[in-house]
Amino acid sequence: MDFDATDLRLLDLLQTDASLSNQELAERAHTSPATALRRVRRLVEGGVIERRVALLDPHAIGEGLTALVEVTLDRQGAEHLDAFEQRAVAQPNVQQCWRVSPGPDFVLVLQVADMPAYHALVQQLFTQDANVRNVKAYFSVKRAKFDPRLVLPSPVRTSGSAAP
After folding, report:
1. pLDDT grade, residue 157 (50/70/90)?
2. CB 20 within 8 A of CB 37
3. Least C-beta-crowded within 10 Å: which of 49, 117, 135, 142?
4. Is the pTM of this model over 0.70?
5. Whose CA is closest to 94, among 105, 85, 82?
């Protein structure tokens, strides 16, 4: 999908605050409400905008322990990787699941209330799986940055288009 300057402004604004009304979004993007609505609809239908969510402070809701976990499996056949991945993504406390290479097979980001909750998840997800060979966990002591925004490309300029 090609993006023009208006698409990029809309995407940037929505990454910052997806709760903006269409009217506010249009004003800030310097376009009409009808254009903003049509463009955003196209970006959703095109799969560029996956979903709109509220980002919560984990500590405010009692989910204050973040763990980054490397998981290595004994058998790495496609069916074994798929089976572990399905089990991991089914766990609500697994926020992110990445297949990686080289090194471990997976890197998971877990968000749990405390160490007993982490231990319970470990028992359920890793200990009971005979194919899990190694688990290495890192526990966050401070979140220095958390920003899910993506860096957007610069608008493509055609010959003869003026600079903004």
Report:
1. low
2. no
3. 142
4. yes
5. 85
